[in-house]
Design brief:
Radius of gyration: 15 Å
Helix content: 55-70%
Order of helices and strands: HHHHH
Oligomer: single chain
Low-confidence stretches: none
Number of strands: 0
Strand content: under 5%
Length: 89
Amino acid sequence: MSHECDDNQATGCDEALENLYLYLDSELDTLTSDRIRSHLDDCNGCVHSFEFEKRLKTVVKERLDEDVPDAFVARLRDALARESAGNTK
């Protein structure tokens, strides 16, 4: 999910893409969420990535027949965070 961005946007793109799922799930603090929303207003590459992921999330959610337990979601998020940080234990 990469795209072209100019050097002035690179930091904003990094932050936006790093927080993509937290943003889509409304799990960011107001300041970070506002900063990402502002970036999306100015960056076509990021907004296209976000729109794709948003549509994908909606389709997956519609296809699920049962709710995923909150505890599982928390464990999955923790595992993904550890993996991103290079710590797989």
